[in-house]
Amino acid sequence: MLEKHEKHEEHEEIKVQNLTRFYTLVLIKSKSPITGYYILKRLKEDLGKTSSPTYVYDFLKSLKREGYLEDAKVSDSKRSQGYMLTTAGDMFTENIFSRFNNMIETAIQSKIKICASCGVKLYDSVHTEKIRGVELNFCCKHCAKAYKSQISA
Prior knowledge:
Blueprint: H1 2-10, H2 19-30, H3 36-47, H4 53-65, E1 69-73, E2 81-85, H5 87-109, E3 113-114, E4 121-122, E5 127-131, E6 134-138, H6 141-152
Antiparallel strand pairs: 1-2, 3-4, 5-6
Helix pairs in contact: 2-5, 3-4
């Protein structure tokens, strides 16, 4: 076991510095086992990005070489060769996600609204009403009604 750890130390750190690699890790983490074909398909569908199969498969090979992925059979695919995270791979992805967390939080922070009545954070489907000349955000019409009755009491 010590030999494997020493071997791991000899390799360069895998860098995740672009959306293709980051989203590949998201997909690997969210579905197991997963095929390279599935990753390419989802990159195109979800991000509108056609990635080079060579780029994606080379990234998968480097993850496997570092011990972050292992081969796995995919039963619901005609491409039965797939990959799944190892324990080390799970730790690696968590580390990457925590590094990206601040960046992602900053990116969506400007889009978050707060319900004026209950204080819940809203990202999508905001109910707005103009009350006393001020446009306020609410999570639903019921909170807007409760807010109006609270300020009129």
